[in-house]
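Now for today's protein.

===
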Amino acid sequence: MIKEIRRRWLLRFPNFEMSEVLSPDGVALVLKTGQIPINQNAMAKLQAFRVWLNRPIKVNSDKLKLRGFRSSTENKGIKGAANFSFHLLGMAFDISADGMSTQELFDKAKEFGWGGIGLYDTWVHVDDRIMLLGVPTTWDSRKNK
């Protein structure tokens, strides 16, 4: 079953292994249920963004390897957004790209049309939220400004 899920995944998202976008709890969920807790539209957008950038993207949320999807337990463990996080819905990714500063990647994410974009010291958060009046929600959470 897992081999077939992986095969279908790579047909749709050839530049990303499932293990790159799933937290440990997400991997466990796939193994247990066969369901992938990543929003397919958000994942398709990440794949399109990678092609549009024409460079590899690393999904690298943090040291705990909580990549795109994270469970509520994992989110609490890293002191993620307390009230709501698009990571819980599998609609958010924390990314970096070799050869690009986080500011450059942030600017490209805005140009591409991500709905939520956050700038951090070593990564950029992108999510597939709905834009209000065509304007993304953005924030700057860098500690080293």
In short: Strands lie at 58-59, 92-96, 116-119, 124-127, 137-140. The radius of gyration is 15 Å. Residues 117 and 126 are 5 Å apart (CA to CA).
